[in-house]
Design a protein that fits this description.
The complex is a heterodimer. By secondary structure, chain A is mainly α. Chain A contains 19 helices and eight strands. In chain A, strand 7 and strand 8 form a beta hairpin. By secondary structure, chain B is of the alpha+beta class. Chain B has helices spanning 20-23, 25-55, 72-98, 116-132, 139-159, 216-222, 238-241, and strands at 61-64, 68-71, 105-108, 182-184, 201-206, 224-228, 248-252, 264-266, 271-273, 280-282, 288-291, 300-301, 303-305, 311-313. In chain B, the strands form four sheets. Chain B has a five-stranded antiparallel sheet with strand order 4-5-6-7-12. Chain B has a four-stranded antiparallel sheet with strand order 8-9-10-11, with no helix packed on it. In chain B, strands 1-2 form a two-stranded antiparallel ribbon. The longest helix of chain B is centred in the first third of the chain and has 31 residues, at 25-55. The model of chain B has no long low-confidence stretch (mean pLDDT 92). Classes of the chains: A mainly alpha, B alpha+beta. Chains A and B meet through helix 5, helix 7, helix 8, strand 4 and helix 10 of A and helix 3, strand 3 and helix 6 of B. Strand 4 of chain A pairs antiparallel with strand 3 of chain B, so a sheet runs across the interface.
Chain lengths: 528, 330
């Protein structure tokens, strides 16, 4: 035993004598986690969050969150002697006069984009593999909460520098608040401390951006990770993997090294992108003034779908009894996102209501084996992508010399037609893949080798799958539709007829699938 | 779900395949050297970072292919940081993959629900303790507590009241009054009709009275666009036509959709386009909305000239400018 090991042993002993944590720590340090590349997506989100905290603290040392008017005297000559807010001037100062300041700003911004991208990718992994099922519904809801908070936090962050682009974003946010029925103009005046833009908003959102939301983030991320730890990670199906076990590597030392190392890799990649690729060059936009704007105004990508929805909204407004309701803002800006996020958060419960499946699940689904869920996911993604596309309709129009009106009309129609189409196509694809799996298990792989039989017939040699391969793609359960008769198990008449009919109908559609090969099928094949 | 198709036989975990470093000490030594090399490179990266911070002047620009002209200090700081972090990560992962144990371990899972007996006991305890507190019977306590907690919840909301003033009529008012001169922005110079050619467009603001200061709050409501077209091209009602002057028409520059500056004027089609959400307004037809999400035309400002021949407002805006709000009456 080397001296390093002896020392670490002494540290462990020291800790236990003061905390009594020996038993708990021993169990948790050797906790087993399964290995798969797709489990790293959530890690990327976590590490970019840490990068955001580190670079964010650096930025606060020089950023002045004030809308007080100042004359710029810094080293960026084109804006010399121009009136601007202290927030904008100090952002210029960080970019041009603080060594490493621009790099930190760019790491902060790139890390924010990566944070949101990783959250969305992680969400898709969890959704398409069914990892949200019982007992992980709480963690799914926390995740949806983190996604929404991330969008808000990102928006507030890029609003802070008070440049012409971000000020325009704030203007739009103010219009959304102001459009709310009854309370809108009051809420807007409270948020902005009076009429837009005022001098109160940036100091206020600064507090929210650097204190309130990061605090909530830290709390939610902690609970999110504690639940992952406590409930043990899900795993992909395969030989030796069951609902009752976890197969993988111990936390210490393998995942300490891998996860710790991966943090540095995420940091390194973000630093590299920020070293070579400029982002949000606020000095080119100029300070905010409500009378000016730059063409091609675009939000960050995670806001793009919202902006796209607003851009494609029909111009409806009601004027009733001396009051105005702006449907053109409320529907795309509040109602549709509200419905989308509510459905997203409740999805685990909706699915288990349809399937009637209340059991715990720790083995992940292959997306093809849950065709309805997969198709629904692709449908939602299609909707979001079409709206995102329309969020860039001006850029697309100028880059490809297209008419902006035609693009908007295409996406207006597309956002209604394409998602159902995506559902149907995805579901058919899933069923085809199930059929292909069945073929593969029963008849093996095509080898491309042709053999001439003695009687002159040519056949292609098929190579059978190994037992492990065959097991991995046939071990899943195939759900049966719910039997919801007029009376329940106790012979009592079931209530809620229409809802039950709907539930039975969705459940039937949900159970549409290709029968997987059974051991009997396999035996039959062997006889041939 | 009992009538499931039976599963195939689970062949169990595949046999463990040893890595090269597990069996060959030379390979293990090689791996150790590679890991040490990565950590060493990281140290060099940090030295580069420190060197760039201290020694490279801030205003050094270099031209690089693909990147273009780049600030050398920022670039070297970034590259130094990249090397120092990336190689710690690569080294650690290489370490884990080559030298740390790679035997798959199996741990059992336990169902999350407690044993039936424990759960029944827990439920019973909750019921007993609730009964001991008289929760079920003393409904007066329950109701009064509920009331006081709900009222207490109002306190923080009330305390936020001073965040801002009440809007009152301010959303419907601008600085434009009868006889206010139109002045250029920037520059604050009064404008004569002859200053504007046909096809020209200008952003204007109301002239300041002595001692007045222009704030962003004013600009956010007062910004106006002047556009001059040939008078015969107008398709306006007689009333609105009287609000123009020799082909010059004035609109609020603040979009009626979400308040962005409607800044893009296309001279050929005489359309005004808002760059935020592409609402398009037809200038000759009193800024009628012809495309996009805006529901109302841009408010028109009635203009004329004063005794000295400068453009002035005939009267204030007759409707609220900017995006809609609940109290807006038209």
């Amino acid at each position: 035993m080397s001296s390093t090991e002896k020392k670490l042993g002494a540290v462990a002993d020291f800790v236990d004598q003061r905390t009594g944590a020996a038993k708990w720590l021993k169990k948790n340090l050797t906790k087993v986690f399964p290995d798969h590349w797709s489990f790293m997506l959530g890690e990327i989100a976590l590490y970019s969050f840490i990068i955001l905290l580190l670079t964010g603290v650096f930025l606060t040392f020089w950023f002045d969150p004030s809308q007080r008017e100042v004359l710029y005297h810094g080293s960026y000559a084109p804006l010399s002697e121009i009136k601007m807010s202290a927030a904008y001037a100090s952002t210029l100062n960080i970019s041009f006069d603080i060594r490493g300041g621009l790099l930190m700003r760019q790491i902060h911004h790139w890390a924010a984009l990566l944070f949101m991208a990783a959250i969305v990718a992680h969400l898709m992994r969890v959704y398409f593999t069914g990892a949200f099922r019982k007992p992980r519904e709480f963690n799914w809801i926390i995740g949806v909460g983190l996604l929404i908070l991330g969008i808000v936090e990102g928006f507030l962050g890029y609003s802070l520098p008070d440049d012409l682009l971000s000020g325009t974003g704030i203007r739009i946010a103010e219009a959304i608040i102001q459009a709310m029925p009854i309370v809108g103009s009051y809420l807007a005046f409270f948020a902005f401390g009076g009429p837009f833009p005022g001098e109160a908003f940036i100091p206020r959102i600064f507090t929210v951006h650097v204190l309130l939301l990061p605090g909530i983030f830290l709390a939610l991320i902690t609970v999110h990770l504690m639940l992952v730890w406590y409930q043990k990670h899900t795993q992909y199906p395969g030989p030796g993997r069951t609902e009752k076990n976890v197969v993988g590597y111990p936390f210490m030392p393998v995942y300490m090294a891998k996860a710790g190392g991966f943090f540095f890799i995420v940091f390194g990649v973000t630093a590299f992108i920020s070293a070579v690729a400029s982002i949000n060059p606020i000095w080119l936009y100029g300070p905010y003034t409500p009378g000016q704007i730059s063409a091609g105004s675009q939000p960050d990508w995670y806001m793009g779908w919202l902006d796209g929805l607003v851009r494609m909204a029909p111009n409806l407004e009601s004027h009733l009894f001396g009051h105005t309701i702006s449907w053109n803002i409320l529907i795309p800006g509040l109602i549709i996102p509200g419905i989308m996020f509510t459905l997203l958060a409740l999805y685990p419960f909706i699915e288990s209501w349809v399937t009637g499946d209340k059991r715990e699940h720790h083995l992940l689904d292959r997306p093809r084996n849950a065709p309805n869920r997969t198709a629904l996911g692709v449908m939602a993604l299609t909707f979001t992508l079409v709206t995102l596309l329309n969020g860039g309709n001006d850029i697309i129009a100028t880059h490809f010399s297209l008419s902006i009106n035609q693009i908007t009309w295409m996406t207006r129609i597309g956002v209604i037609v394409l998602p159902p189409l995506a559902f149907i196509i995805t579901k058919r694809l899933c069923l085809s893949l199930q059929r292909a799996d069945r073929e593969l298990v029963l008849h093996g792989r095509e080898t491309g080798q042709l053999v001439l039989l003695p009687h002159g017939e040519f056949v292609e040699v098929h190579q059978p799958l190994t037992d492990a391969e065959a097991f991995a793609i046939t071990q899943h359960e195939q759900l049966k539709p719910l039997e919801l008769g007029a009376v329940d198990d106790h012979g009592v008449r079931r209530r809620g007829g229409v809802l039950n009919k709907l539930r039975a109908r969705i459940s039937r559609a949900n159970a549409e699938q290709i029968a997987k090969p059974s051991p009997d099928d396999m035996k039959e094949i062997e006889h041939h | 779900m009992s009538d499931q198709i039976e599963r195939l036989q689970d062949p169990g975990l595949p046999e463990h395949v040893h890595r090269k470093a597990d069996t060959d000490p030379a390979a293990a030594d090689r791996a150790e050297h590679q890991i040490a090399m990565a950590f060493g490179l990281s140290a060099l990266g940090t030295i580069l970072f420190i060197y760039a911070y201290i020694k490279v002047p801030k205003e050094t620009f270099v031209f690089l292919p693909v990147l273009g002209t780049t600030n050398a200090q920022q670039l070297l700081l970034g590259i130094g940081l990249t090397i120092s972090t990336l190689f710690i990560g690569l080294g650690a992962i290489h370490w884990a993959k080559t030298l740390m144990p790679d035997n798959e371990v199996i741990q059992e899972r336990h169902e999350f629900r407690s044993a039936d007996l424990d759960r029944a006991d827990f439920v019973k305890t909750v019921k007993e303790q609730a009964a001991a507190a008289n929760l079920g019977r003393r409904s007066l306590i329950k109701r009064s507590l509920g009331l006081s907690l709900a009222l207490l919840g109002l306190a923080p909301l009330v305390a936020l009241r001073d965040l801002g003033p009440l809007p009152k009529k301010s959303l419907e008012e601008t600085s434009w009054k009868s006889g206010t001169r139109l002045v250029t922005d920037p520059g604050d110079r009064p404008i004569k009709p002859s200053d504007l050619e046909v096809g020209a467009v200008a952003q204007v603001l109301p002239a300041l009275l002595p001692g007045e200061e222009r704030t962003l709050n004013n600009i956010a409501k007062d910004a106006v666009l002047l556009i001059r077209i040939r008078p015969e091209e107008f398709q306006l009602s007689p009333e609105r036509l009287a609000w123009t002057y020799q082909g010059i028409i004035a609109f609020s520059k603040i979009c009626t959709h979400m308040g962005c500056a409607v800044a893009l004027y296309e001279q050929q089609t005489k359309h005004l386009l808002c760059p935020c959400h592409q609402s398009t307004f037809d200038v000759p037809r009193a800024a009628k909305v012809i495309f996009g999400p805006a529901a109302r035309p841009l408010p028109q400002l009635a203009i004329t000239v004063d005794a000295e021949g400068y453009l002035v407002a005939q009267k204030p805006f007759t409707e609220a400018v900017g995006p809609s709000f609940w109290e807006r009456s038209s």
